[in-house]
Amino acid sequence: MNRRSFLGTTAAALAATGLASAIPATLQAAARKKGISMPIGFQSYVFREEISNQPHETMSRLAGYGYKNVEWCSPKGYQGPFAPLAKYSGKELKKITNDAGLESTSCHFTWQEITNDESLKERIEFAHQLGLKHMVCSGGLGAKTADEIKQRCAQMNHVGEMVKKAGMIAGYHNHNGEFDEKINGRPQYDLMLEQLDPAMVKMQFQVAAITSGYKAQDYFRKFPGRFISAHLQDYSPTDHTKEVVMGTGIVDWKDFFAAVKTGGLQYIFVEMESDQSIMQGCADYLKQL
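The structure assignment produced for this chain is given below.
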């Protein structure tokens, strides 16, 4: 039993015997706390143009909705939508983030940025300046054959080893293609999980896979401890191409959050290519959930 579990169990036991008044406030809080707590985050790509042109104003507004954490896309790798931010160092981008009332613990990097050792070393330095815990590859493992996937996963394992030596965790982010495109009848995503070294590369699950028939929580339970974060989306029950406020769509969020501890999640990021009302509604839903 770790320290946190011990404190929570002890406090709960004392409270049950009527001795709660003698328990320090920190222990009483531990007894009341259930499940796990994660800051509400959003993916910066959703507001790429606004953030690139007015980073402080846009992120301050999102912080006002209740978001605490922003997952950046590397401006160097995403030169199109984030070109105006490429001039900033990681340290400067961290200040912009913090001044808006947000933290940044994770960032997306393109396959091209991280699969070259020299480029990866520079990106690791950028990540340290930004204060990251997770460096997430935004795609690139998909292929036409199992051998190609195995080869690319070996590259990703090497990236993960370098990132781990630098004191961070490497992650891989899926899209629907890894589920829709199958090899010998199996989703490519399942092959990737077999080839990626769990000690070197964790997974960031995109909940949008539900529109292809795959639930995040099923993977969390089937592959415990393999995940570090998730991108959250929800869709209309009558039109699976239409995004809706979380809690009004097809995702069973109570079951999702019941499985996140098993999966190993540390962070969640809302990613809806929708209007601001949906992003605000999702923050409100997560706060009350």
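Interim note for the steering committee: The mean pLDDT is 90. The first helix runs from residue 3 to 16.
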